[in-house]
Amino acid sequence: MKLLKKSLCTLAITLWANQLVASPWPTGIDDKVSLVQNWTISIPVLDNDIGHNLEISDFNATSVAWGSITLSEDKQSLNYKPRNNFVGTDEFWYVLKDDQGRTNAAKVVAEVVSSVWPEAKTDSVDATYDEVVKIPVLDNDIGTNLKVISVNEWSVNQGKAWISSNNEISYQQYGEARGKQQDEFWYVFEDQWGRKNSAKVIVSLTEKASTAWPTATPDEAVANNGLRVNIPVLENDIGDELKIEATNEWSQNGGKTRIIGDIIRYTPPANFSGTDSFWYVFVDNQGRTNSARVDVEVTENKEKSVVEFCDNTYETDGTKANTQLSNSSPLAPVSYPSTIYQYSYFTDEDGNRISSWVTDERAYYTERTDSESVLWMKVNGSVSRVSSIANGFEGQPFNPLASYQGAFYFVQEGRHLYSHDGGKLTHLGDLLLDLGAGNFYTYEDGHTPDDSEYINAATNLTWGAEHRGGAGDALHLEVLNLINPTDGATPIRKYTYLRISEDTGSQPIKIQTTTTYSSSNSYQNESNSSFYYFNGLDYYKYFFSDGTRDGVQFTSSNWEHTIKQSDNGVVLESTGGVISKFVEDRGRLFIITDAFDPGPFFSNAYQSKLFVVNNTTDELVELAGCE
């Protein structure tokens, strides 16, 4: 027998012991299922529970409503059968156990629905010739989680129908305009359990005064230094309510394109300079299409960057092979206008001192009357009304956030994000449903509410937005959704990070949502900070830790600092490090990290390093380290 060296054995035992101590207690998470009366289902209850090598150790053999429960042979799922002909909400509990013998419990809520087949209702819709109309056919049908599965491709009177997004059916008349006509077709739908039914759609056709076909105009753009460029291609096209429908995924010379709202983002091919081109297709409000060509002039980055790091000066073309110490002096740092509004005062006609928030020489202030709160704008001595809400809202009616590209950003009624550019007020979204983490609340009985129920649970919710600063030509915001469950369970904080940038139409784009909680026996902490927007991507500092909790004593199991990059909400790459500074120089972004030692219980200590972003692959390239 070959013996292991003593040092290796000690190492293996020590690692095992540390993992054992740090392993969190198993967590049971309630389950919700639905089924048809008199059916039996298998419920994989452990799938959403948290722990190591879990199995079911005990369970209620009979549910609250006298249903029966049995255990699977592998002890990983439970079989549930409701009482004969029972319809309604039933529930039962089970106990889970990990490989250290530690237990916890969770509840299963079963919604038993009637075996009545889904009911179909006839739909009626108006349409014009050459128009594509979308029909929400399921809105008047009756059933659970209905889904359209098929439709007559051709109608009875020269029309065509097809299944489109959101379970809607699109219809277009292909015949020549011939006055008032009636058309019809059928579709088939099914419910959550595969039970099918069908319904008829009646289309009433009328002629509409024809407008000109949308006109396409070629576009030209420049991608300086081989960087991405966002191209507002629709600005020179002519038509009503134009939208980009498609684009060549690959350009003529191997570049890539991506549709982001009303713009197309172009990424040049690697090591390319010269003229590249691609085509896009757009559609108007009548479904009529046209297309145009875009020519992009890509310029090469021939300059070397100079950056200071660790008491040295480096000169580089963005590759590690061509990075060396230098006596050159770096350029002045690239900077962008501040996104912080200014706080100021002015004196009104009655001599009162009025506090205001100033953006681009426009002063915004609030006034409360007997019936409403009003947000006013004062500029060059003139006063105009921006927005108002009726009295009755508990809290600050208007909360200022930031100033970006001449627009003032604020939150109204603690929930709605707005921008005002001095003339136009734009609603950017709902912090509770759209821009934040969305509807993730669960009631004590286990059911997930619809949006109206979610909003009505506002006594258990906290939401809001904060200015997160950041750098690059962008505005970064943080949205908080805090839930205190009604059953006294663990409060959950979800933070959603947004970016607003002029090159993407100044619409909020989600970067990432993080989750933070602290229960009686475990915790998790996630946070983002130090944002920088460069070459179409967001770079930021990410921190994560989790572990066990015993009273006020926290014991970490995992702990990390990470450099993250996000492409409009999709995280591309993560590299360990504590971001200290961003440096933008001559078309390149450099990231400097700090040395950091988390202590003797963790192995992921961080060295101070200099990274550069590869503008072609978006990878972080390590150029130098600092001892």
Overview of the molecule:
The chain is mainly beta and 627 residues long. Among the domains are: 31-113, Immunoglobulin-like; 122-206, Immunoglobulins (Immunoglobulin-like); 219-299, Immunoglobulins (Immunoglobulin-like); 303-332 and 577-626, no CATH class; 342-430. Helices cover 4% and strands 51% of the residues. It is built from two helices and 45 strands. It has an eight-stranded antiparallel β-sheet, with no helix packed on it. The protein has a five-stranded antiparallel β-sheet with strand order 25-26-27-28-29, with no helix packed on it. Strand 28 and strand 29 (382-390) form a beta hairpin. The longest helix is centred in the first third of the chain and has 17 residues, at 6-22. The chain starts with 5 loop residues before the first helix and ends with a strand.
Can you summarize this structure?
The chain is mostly beta strands and 627 residues long. It is 4% helix and 51% strand.
| SS element count, helices | 2
Largest sheet: 8 strands, antiparallel
Strand content is over 45%
Number of DSSP-assigned strands? 45
State the helical fraction: under 10%
Q: Would you tell me the structural class of the helices and strands?
A: mainly beta
Strand order, biggest sheet? 34-35-36-37-38-39-40-41
Mean of residue pLDDT values = 86
Residue ranges: pLDDT <50 for 5 or more in a row?
1-22, 457-462
Rg for CA atoms: 30 Å
Calculate the terminal CA-CA distance, rounded to whole Å: 44 Å
Q: Tell the overall outline.
A: globular
